[in-house]
Amino acid sequence: MRQPFNERNRDLIVNVNGTLVHRDEAGISPFDSVVQGGDAVWEGLRLYDGRIFKLREHLARLRSSALALAFAEIPPDEEIIEEIRRTLAANGMRDGVHIRLTLTRGVKVTSGMDPRLNRSGPTLIVLAEHKAPVYERAGLKLITSSLRRFGPDTLDPKIHHANLLQSILAKIEANAAGADDALMLDGNGFIAETNATHLFFVRDGVAMTSRTVACPEGITRATVLELCAEHDIPSRVKDLSLNRGLPRRRGVLHRHDGRTRECDGNRRTDHRRRVAGAAHEAARRPLPGCHRARRSRRGWPRDLVSLAGASILRPSTSVRAGLRDYSGL
Ligand SMILES: Cc1ncc(COP(=O)(O)O)c(C=O)c1O
């Protein structure tokens, strides 16, 4: 996975609490809650041909996350949409855009974690960038992270918060192994998701994904399940283990130490795994193996084949139904 600097983003206009400013001049107070404690919620939005994929659903999740964190004030949806619209208009954007929408608890009167130190309302940040899909369609390499995803008894994954250190540490493991991303397990050793997104794979003709025990209630995930139903593709939501859940095939292994070796495909520890309509090869279970993905050879709809995240989902007819024209809102 590569995210090269895009020259078109050199002079971006970003929006901080309604002020439109050049990216090099934008500032956040050192007293802001996001600086003090990662105390913020966020959503990643995609703009396709002037429309934002599942905008209302993303705003609903932003709101429920902020409510769960007991933010004293949350801007109404219409106000947030207006700031998104102003930001897109300021940048002349219509397509191929990723919007990172962040709502922080706001500026504190003095440094510290106590939400009672917040007395001036939240900070809304709209960062819109020209961004191509970040995942390769040809396949991905995944390692299995040594870090487990939180369940609701620790830090509820239904809260889409901006404290991403657990994911970042998993990503560091993936980087060290020369992999694209890390597969993360839940506290019981079942597959939760990757460090960045939900995971589907196809086994015996059935599209499978994990329960949302240790991953967010995904908007893309829900869309994929809807697409499966719409296209008569069998799908199943269940606890998935590395050994039992993923199909085994011959393939190339990528170990956590970064070395690559061939496997014979016959040993129980050698698997090739199909993930998001792609095949993965993995080393040992449970930690830290490394998988290599390839494209599906079956005729899955493009949306399903490329479902590894909102950032790569392409709109189909049914997906388009969830799009909103920002200019019309
Ligand atoms: C940890 C994590 N998992 C999965 C997703 C994908 O969720 P959705 O498709 O609902 O945006 C995200 C998106 O931000 C995420 O942060």
How would you portray this structure in words?
There is one protein chain. With 329 residues, the protein is α+β, with helices and mostly antiparallel strands. It folds into two domains: 7-130, D-amino Acid Aminotransferase, Chain A, domain 1 (2-Layer Sandwich), CATH 3.30.470.10; 141-316, D-amino Acid Aminotransferase, subunit A, domain 2 (D-amino Acid Aminotransferase, Chain A, domain 2, Alpha-Beta Barrel). The protein has helices at 33-37, 55-68, 77-91, 165-176, 219-230, 242-245, 302-305, 317-320; strands spanning 13-16, 19-22, 40-48, 51-53, 97-104, 123-130, 141-148, 181-185, 191-194, 200-203, 206-209, 235-237, 252-254, 260-262, 271-275, 278-282, 290-294, 323-325. The strands form four sheets. A seven-stranded antiparallel sheet has the order 2-1-6-5-3-4-18. Strands 9-8-7-17-16-15 form a six-stranded mixed sheet, with helices on one face. Strand 16 (278-282) and strand 17 form a beta hairpin. The protein is globular and about 55 Å long. The two termini are 34 Å apart. It binds pyridoxal-5'-phosphate (PLP). Pyridoxal-5'-phosphate (PLP) binds at residues 44, 193, 197-198, 215-216, 218-220, 309-310.
